[in-house]
Amino acid sequence: MNEREHRVPEPRRRFEEPGTSAEDDVLLVADGLVMDFPGTRAVDGVSLSVRRGTTFGLVGESGCGKSTLTSLLLGLLRPTAGTVRFRGTELTGLGGRELRRLRAHMQVVLQDPVGSLNRRKTVGQIIGLPLAVHGAGDATARRARVAELLELVGLPTSYASRRPAELSGGQCQRVSIARAIALHPDLVVLDEAVSAIDVATQAQILNLLRSLQTELGLTYLFVSHDLAVVRYMAPEIAVMHRGRIVEQAPREDLFASPREEYTRTLIEAIPRVPSREATP
């Protein structure tokens, strides 16, 4: 076995992305997505695109179709109509093996930081699982990569031997993030990733995500019911209501002049806390 087979691939940083055209810049495209379940239409004609190295925010109340749309974008559900293209490849018609290969480049961080981790496994086993499943490096290289990932998310390398029950909610979410970025994915879907964490820890996790994005050139799809959190993370925001994207705009435009009444309602619901700059 040669040296290349022993090594975990190096991360693809933003400045190393190939191509400079607008088409190369778009990582994920949904076109006319529809998802019907018996008696209901959960997603109704959604189109969106996510550019490389950015954060695209998707916001809406519980039950609006965000989770179904996320599953469609990840290829976990087959749409009733419409298409999803990721890295230029349409997901809709792919077989299991091809889809699995592409999924190495798209990872997800879920809402429940404790429940999303296997309590029977150690932190090192949890973070190292994607590496093992996709055959990235040998056992020695994977252990080294796990240690590197723990440091990247702000946890001591000694935590590799701990189990989820020994960690706080915020620490568990750091483990989930480490697992998600283990394979240097192009896209990380953050599905209500901070909604189950206390406010102080939320800020730490959000700042960690922003730091990792800058360092590793990650692309985020940030899904949340909390418009204040989405505003902090995403320069481009889509508002979802009753299965549709009712408004999409750059962050500054959305907050300065929302077109839809539903968007105005979400903005008005954000708690008003005086900023530090406004304090005399």
UniProtKB/TrEMBL annotation:
ABC transporter domain sequence ranges: 28-267
Gene3D superfamilies: P-loop containing nucleotide triphosphate hydrolases (3.40.50.300)
Gene Ontology BP terms: transmembrane transport
InterPro entries from the UniProt entry: AAA+_ATPase (IPR003593), ABC_transp_ATP-bind (IPR050319), ABC_transporter-like_ATP-bd (IPR003439), ABC_transporter-like_CS (IPR017871), P-loop_NTPase (IPR027417)
Bias-annotated ranges (Basic and acidic residues): 1-17
Annotated keywords: ATP-binding, Nucleotide-binding, Transport
Region described as Disordered: spans on this chain: 1-20
GO molecular function: ATP binding; ATP hydrolysis activity
Pfam family membership, one: ABC_tran
Family: Belongs to the ABC transporter superfamily.
Name the record gives this protein: ABC transporter domain-containing protein
Source organism (scientific name): Actinocatenispora rupis
